[in-house]
Write a structure and sequence with these properties.
The complex is a heterodimer of chains A (150) and B (113). Chain A is mainly alpha-helical and 150 residues long. Helix content of chain A is 77%, strand content 0%. Chain A is elongated, with a radius of gyration of 17 Å. With 113 residues, chain B is of the alpha/beta class. The longest helix of chain B is centred in the N-terminal third of the chain and has 31 residues, at 2-32. The chains are: A mainly alpha (150), B alpha/beta (113).
Chain lengths: 150, 113
């Protein structure tokens, strides 16, 4: 099958290809946001805290089309077949990762709405757990897509 | 004595005939079943040419799930995990391109004569 990477029809209609492309955005933005947030906590640097916040917002926004295209791939490529094994684990971890990204973004968003920004400390282990879930989901996704293949 | 010899000749001839039939049946069953390996993100052999009535069996030897889906929607497997198989009997002559719906770059073809 020969495809032109600049053909708009290929980009739009290439079944699950969008998910494989889009996943990089929430993944990278969330990991970067958490890194910035840890650094901001450590250095008390407001610029780093702001960078963490905007990265988190973008991660939360980009997680929506990512999970939507992942679910669409399940319906289009596999016709909604009952999943098992690595595919099921990838779906469950992906949903869990998305929820954690949204929860962390909401914690930051809520704190920023107050006159004095006071981020709760419990967010740090939640963020660390989120990074772990995102990494596991990405690892399985890499296996499924063949990126991690020998 | 002569009758004894002819009986033996008949027994030997029957035994040879039966052996021949067994070999022919074995060859026939081998010809009617074709195996395609799914390994290392590829179908092997990529293209098979078979007579009509042949059953082709795909076996996933990868650690990754794969599917076998006809481009023309003639056949479609469920998701095949490691060592799972999918078989389809081709009764009509033609060319049947197929791919893995999880990894669309994985393609193959069955030519039925």
């Amino acid at each position: 099958m020969r495809v032109n990477p600049f053909d708009i029809r290929t980009i739009v209609l290439a079944k699950h290809a969008q998910h494989v492309v889009l996943i990089h955005f929430p993944l990278a933005l969330f990991v970067a946001a958490v890194a910035f947030d840890y650094l901001a906590q450590w250095t008390r640097n407001q610029a780093l805290a702001s960078a963490a916040y905007f990265n988190l917002l973008l991660a939360a926004i980009s997680a929506v089309p990512t999970i939507a295209t992942g679910l669409a791939a399940w319906q289009w490529a596999l016709e909604g077949e009952t999943l098992k094994g690595i595919l099921l684990l990838h779906l469950v971890l992906g949903c869990g990762s998305s929820v954690l990204i949204w929860v962390v973004a909401w914690i930051h968003w809520r704190a920023r709405r107050r006159p004095v920004v006071q981020l709760p400390n419990y967010r740090l282990p939640v963020e660390a757990f989120g990074v772990l879930l995102v990494a596991l989901t990405g690892h399985l996704g890499g296996f499924l897509s063949g990126v991690n293949a020998p | 004595m002569k009758r004894h010899h002819s009986t033996w000749a008949l027994v030997v001839a029957l035994a040879l005939m039966l052996a021949g039939l067994a070999v022919a049946a074995q060859a026939q069953s081998t010809a009617d079943l074709i195996e395609v390996r799914i390994d290392n993100f590829s179908f092997g052999p990529t293209e098979v040419t078979v007579p009509a009535g042949t059953t082709v069996t795909w076996t996933n030897h990868d650690d990754i799930p794969h599917t076998v889906v006809s481009t023309d929607k003639v056949f479609k497997s469920k998701v095949l995990d490691t060592d799972e198989k999918f078989s389809f009997t081709f009764s009509t002559a033609g060319t049947y391109p197929y791919f893995c719906s999880i990894h669309p770059k994985m393609t193959g073809k069955v030519v039925v004569r």
